[in-house]
Amino acid sequence: MNPKSAVWVAGAVLSVVAGTTAQYVYPHAESSPVDIVVTILGVLLIFVWYRFDAAQSGYRRNLGLDIAVIAIALIGLPYYFFRSRGAKRGLIATGLFLLTIIGFSLLTAAGRLAVYHGLQS
To answer: What is the pLDDT of residues 59-76, one digit of tens each?
Structure first.
């Protein structure tokens, strides 16, 4: 498995674990301390994926973009995608990034739902 795929798998696992842990430990909370840990780990995974991708494509990263990817990934990564891939491929990569965020959110919700129904029965 290549490193970028491993980061995707780790993100999916993190999403499910986040949902199950939050539901089990804080069952009635809209948000929990688990969310803080998951956010930090998620940002770390995004940055690691970005570094692997930039190295693979030969894109020269700079400190400003590194900080943007960490601080505001919803803006930093699309900027990187358009700069490293051009308009068409950048738009496709941005769309895939947004779909990934949605997918990971659904995995978190599925983890919460599984624990909720598991504890109810």
So the answer is: 999 999 999 999 999 999
Residue with tokens 């990564």: 77
Q: For residues 25 and 34, is the Cβ–Cβ distance under 8 A? A: yes
The answer to whether the beta carbons of residues 18 and 34 sit under 8 Å apart is yes
Per-residue confidence band for 32, with pLDDT thresholds at 50, 70 and 90? confident
Task: Report d(CA 75, CA 33) in Å as an integer.
Answer: 25
Identity of the amino acid at 42: G
For residue 101, the number of C-alpha atoms closer than 13 Å in the C-beta half-sphere is: 11
- Pairwise CA distance, residues 29 & 112, whole Å: 11
